[in-house]
Amino acid sequence: MLSSDRGWSARRPYVEAVITDSMCEIQQRQAVDGTSLGAFRPAEVLDLEISEADEWTQAQRNSLNQLNLLAGDREQLEWIPYRFRYVYRCAFERCSGHRQTIIDWEIKQAYRRWSREYPDDWAGRIRAKWLDELCAPDRDTVFFVGNQFGAPKGFLVLGVYWPPKQRADQLGLLQV
Predict the structure, then answer these.
(1) How far, in Å, CA of 122 to CA of 46, rounded?
(2) Which of 87, 93, 114, 158 is the most exposed place for a label (fewest CB within 10 A)?
């Protein structure tokens, strides 16, 4: 596991190596070569929407209930009754904006825990963490996105990388 100590310096080289200019570029690449994963810095995160989610379809329930001969009893997945979406603009100059569902395990787990511990304030806590903290002006926020085989043009936010922003002298751009 790579530490987040010292401004996440151990993680930075791996993330920087895969960052593209914008979500719009990832969508353009998908149309040309089938790109299905990407990472980029959002230019401006406008909102975190929390809305009611559709219940699982019967086909999804059937898939969840399939037995696995190699695994013993397994815990049933808990349905999360809410959908979380980022609304943002990427760095592409003609970007008309994006609204993408977040499927990151951490936001779902935060909902599970906080809806039990803080039933009257779980949504405020999620907004504070995923909007106000992870996308704060002092953070160098990167969204990891991916699509699904059945919906190649519909990208989802898979996770967020949010180290503190670094000054130019910390990046080695200036001699001190």
Answers:
(1) 20
(2) 93
Beta bridge partners of 94: none
Per residue in 11-68, pLDDT tens?
A: 888 889 999 999 999 999 999 999 999 999 999 999 999 999 988 888 877 777 776 6
Q: What's the pTM?
A: 0.86
CA nearest neighbour of 104 among 121, 129, 122? 129
| Residue 102 one-letter amino acid | I
Nearest to 112 by CA among 80, 157, 67: 80
**Rounded distance, CA 57 to CA 65, Å?**
12
Instruction: Read off the amino acid at residue 155.
Output: F
For a pLDDT cut of 70, what percent of the chain falls above it? Answer: 86
**CA angle at residue 42 from 38 to 47, to 5 degrees?**
120
Domain ranges of the chain: 5-161
**Phi/psi-derived region of residue 7, left when phi > 0, alpha when psi is between -120 and 50, beta in every other case:** left
